[in-house]
Design a protein that fits this description.
The chain has 142 residues and is mainly α. It contains 6 helices and 2 strands, in the order ααααααββ. The protein has helices spanning 2-43, 51-55, 66-69, 73-84, 90-101, 107-126; strands spanning 132-133, 140-141. It starts with a helix and ends with a strand.
Length: 142
């Protein structure tokens, strides 16, 4: 019986990872839309985006420090996990990246950056370069 529960827990974790990936993708798309709207306003200053479409955005675009925006998160994560010697959570990876980059973020930017780190970790898991280690409630990556 516990085998079924274990499988369901694994499936739930996989679905949560997919949700994180989708949320990260939505944020990227929202930023792309905002950039396109800014360019449209250059060519047509009277342009006003459709309010209904704009209202469906979940959050406003959060500006990341240039150092983080240009950082290769995959390389940074692999380096951190290699150097750590023990499995780390997404939050721990995020804080180590920020520490190494010498950057501090406000709450909104930290949330967005953590989501991006999570998406990068999920990508590494799917590629088989990183694995989940730990309990179902608190995944650690190794």
């Amino acid at each position: 019986m516990s085998s079924v529960a274990d499988e369901l827990k694994l499936k739930r974790e996989a679905l949560l990872l997919d949700v994180n990936d989708a949320e990260a993708r939505i944020k990227v798309l929202a930023a792309d839309i905002a950039a396109i709207e800014r360019v449209i306003r250059v060519y047509d200053p009277s342009y006003v985006p459709d309010a209904a479409k704009k209202a469906s955005r979940r959050r406003e675009h959060v500006q990341m420090p240039k150092r983080l925006a240009q950082m290769n998160k995959t390389e940074a994560l692999l380096e951190i996990l290699r150097d750590a010697g023990t499995p780390k959570t997404t939050a721990e990876c995020t804080m180590l990246i920020l520490e190494r980059a010498g950057v501090s973020l406000d709450e909104a930017a930290l949330s967005v950056f953590t989501t991006r780190v999570s998406a990068s970790l999920n990508g590494l898991v799917k590629l088989g370069r990183v694995r989940h280690a730990g309990s179902a409630g608190r995944n650690r990556h190794a």
